[in-house]
Amino acid sequence: MHTATVSISFLFSFLFSFLFFFFFFFILHPSPSSADPFYHFCDDNGNYTANSAYATKLNQILSSLPTNASRSSGFAKSTVGSIPNIVSALALCRGDSNSSSCRSCLDLAFQEAAQLCPYFTSVTIYYDLCLLSYSNQLFLSSTDNSHQVFAWNVNNITDKRFAGWDPKSAANYTFFNSLINKLLTSIADWAANDSTSRFATGEMNITNAFPTLYGLVQCTPDMSNMQCHECLQDLTNEMLRNLSYFDGRQGARILGVRCNVRYEAYTFYDGDSMVKISSLAPIIPIGNSPAPPPSTVPRSPPGSSPPSPVAPPSGGKSKLWIIITTTSLALLFSFSLLCFLWIKRKRRAREEKKRELQREFNITTNEASRLWKNEDSNSKFSLYSFSQIADATNHFSPENKLGEGGFGPVYKGQLPDRLEIAAKRLSARSGQGQVEFKNEIQLIAKLQHRNLVSLIGCCIEGEEKILIYEYMPNKSLDFFLFDQTKGALLDWSKRFHIIEGIAQGLLYLHKHSRLRIIHRDLKASNILLDRDMNPKISDFGMARIFGSNENQANTNRIVGTYGYMSPEYAFEGLFSIKSDVFSFGVLLLEIVSGKRNAGFYQFGNSVNLLGYAWELWKEGKWFELIDASLGDGYDRVELERSINIALMCVQENAVDRPTMSNVITMLSNDSPSLPDPKQPAFFNLRIATEAEELLNLTGTCSVNDVTITTPYGR
Questions:
Q1: 713 φ, ψ (degrees, to nearest 5)
Q2: Distance between CA atoms of residues 562 and 180, nearest Å
Q3: If you placed Cys at 96, which of 115, 120, 293, 452 could pair as Cys (CB 3.0 to 4.6 Å)?
């Protein structure tokens, strides 16, 4: 009897220890297995009951969507029912997964979604190999890349695999970020042109002493070429400008419902790379598509055998098994209760975060009305109801969608007075762009200049926040400038007219407006063109007002677009009117050459456009920079002067750069003599041989197949 008691106590302790270990290790510290969800969102769009019509429709989609996705290149979407009783769902598997692993991942996703977000009508869940999103809202016609998740490798480029890197050197991080930008934009271009899968992988070999970088990008196949390219470019820009998360990381990814990007310093995808990139050479496609990847279904280790079955108890041991079973059930009940309380606590924390975000952005219609009643009577700014904007845009139909703005989709519309508008829409639930929305509504309507886009009004109603702009029929400058066919429509006289207009708009912001404003995000996509190809500066969400006695300011929140940011702003957070001058210089070089500064072109021995232009200028070969689509129809003196001014604007030291008043004077002056520019910023980081000498990259590098990521939902 004593022996039996000891055995029961031992078994009780063993089971309790086992369950505690299981709970602590696998629940509180989940391993990054492909069977575990990477991240999930339970949207507060309402709930349903077990036997409701919504549950029936959801089960109907469940029975078909995983099968359809596994049979059709890993993508499927479906809508069942009609408004208000409707279920829409989207499923996407990673492009290198096979049919079997795709089906397994999506089946698991539906099961886990029901457990992690019980009876939620809108759920998004990410795995390493697939994603699933369903909702009681019509979202399949939208290309909104919401529910983004940030993740990065905890190791940075200062470890032993990147020998010679100084962790305090901003130059090293800038050089590394330029490589990541080139890798991802190159692969993105390949994926956007693949109309079947919108998926691509690639690798970049830099030097023998530097680890090879690997990248993967993917869009949902129902997106157009342009939509996919813009979606991937937005994620790449987000990764490169969000320095607090991604700067100098050996690996990083951003997941979204419509597209995702990832890079690592080791091979993380199946099959051969579809694109190979040299840091200085053009893209080398390996083939039209990767070879079918091997199955990702887990297998037993070599030499292992399945566990032997346990014989059931018999005879006098039956009472002992009853005690063990009862004890186990009690422990399992306790374990389940702990899990339930933990999940409830996490959900409460998410809801509190949403409420806090709403409190921080508590702009009401009354506040907006009071704001604009205090403005001059000349301001044509108006407040619109949501129904007015919905009617004007045909209820935000996909046919009226113009693209994705800085914080949401933009739709074309027409008001009852036949005025054409562009409506930029933000939902407060997204948590993105709210600071920028408030910034624009307080700034841009106060600005009146022919080279600034006009803000006609806004709509603030419930969770809907919409900015209403004048409609620009010729889209943005990058639509023409970086396309070989459309670039020919911009002859030199039109380009010079655009250059002068941008300069006049910046001068107004810096000097002649009632407010002294620094734009902080001047780039080709933020230059809109009206019917007569007149340029208008847009997107003031990141602009800052300067006091009359301020010359520069400092910020901990670095915003803007990689490739256009001045060095003192990118590295130290210092910005001034000279930051905008630097961006103008980059933009001027792009207008002359027809090429992006932060692109994947081959610029001789330079990785970026600034270094290439500087080399040609020093050698007296500046004419080689000119866009070939201009032919011979340009003013040689005017073009040389423009390149000279651009190089003066991108000089490394802010004090050496001219003001916009000086720029306009130099553009309009026919005198051939201008000061010689000094070396541009970032030039010494863009020459491969000098970079290798600077960074002292020696020795061989080992490949580490382990990465630890920390996800942040957006």
A1: -75, 150
A2: 11
A3: 293
Q: Which residues are CB-contacts of 637 (< 8 A; sequence separation ≥ 6)?
A: 670, 672
Cβ–Cβ under 8 Å, residues 542 and 535: no
Position 380 scores a pLDDT of: 65
| pLDDT at residue number 114 | 86
- Is residue 711 over pLDDT 50? no
Q: What type of residue sits at position 397?
A: S
Q: What does residue 632 show for φ and ψ, rounded to 5 degrees?
A: -105, 5
CA 568 to chain centre: 24
User: What's the CA gap between 441 and 407, in Å, rounded?
Assistant: 14
> Encoding tokens for residue 445?
């309507």
- Which of these, 543, 542, 536, 520, lies nearest to 452 by C-alpha position? 536
Q: What one-character DSSP code corresponds to residue 386?
A: H
pTM metric for this prediction: 0.51
Q: Which pLDDT does position 191 carry in this prediction?
A: 93
* Phi–psi pair at 599, nearest 5 degrees: -115, -160
3-state secondary structure 10-33: HHHHHHHHHHHHHHHHHHHCCCCC
Which residue, 441, 388, 386, 432, is CA-closest to 408?
Answer: 432
1-24 pLDDT, tens per residue?
A: 444 433 444 444 444 444 444 443
d(C-alpha 454, C-alpha 320), whole Å: 81
C-alpha 201/C-alpha 289 separation (Å) is 9
Q: Which residues are registered as beta bridge partners of 27?
A: none
- The structure tokens 């990764």 sit at 239
Of 256-270, 303-317, 423-437, the least confident: 303-317
Active site residues: 521
| From 118-127, 183-192, 511-520, the region with the lowest mean pLDDT | 511-520
Do the strands 382-383 and 455-461 form a parallel or antiparallel pair, or are they unpaired? parallel
In this predicted model, which residue has the larger pLDDT, 562 or 471? 471
Q: What is the pLDDT of residue 250?
A: 84
Count of beta carbons in the 10 Å neighbourhood of residue 116: 17
Q: pLDDT band for 39, please (50, 70, 90 cuts).
A: confident
236 burial via Cβ count (<10 Å: 0-12, 13-18, 19+): buried
Distance CA 226, CA 232 (A): 10
What count of other Cβ atoms lies within 10 Å of the Cβ of residue 412?
19
Look at residue 608 and tell me whether its pLDDT is greater than 90.
no
How confident is the model at residue 172, as a pLDDT? 67
Buried b (16+ CB within 10 A) or exposed e, 634-670: beeeebbbbbbbbbbbbbbebeebbebebbbebbeee
What sign does the dihedral 650-655-656-659 (CA atoms) show? positive
For residues 117 and 79, give the distance between their C-alpha atoms in angstroms, rounded to a whole number. Answer: 20
CA distance linking residue 595 with residue 583, whole number of Å: 15
3-state class of 344 per DSSP? helix
Domains in the chain, CATH or no CATH each: 39-140 (3.30.430.20), 150-285 (3.30.430.20), 365-470 (3.30.200.20), 477-688 (1.10.510.10)
Q: Is the model's pLDDT at 428 over the cut of 80?
A: no
Kindly tell me if the per-residue pLDDT of 630 is higher than 70. Answer: yes
Element (H, E) at 275: strand 275-278
Tokens representing 594 are 């027809």
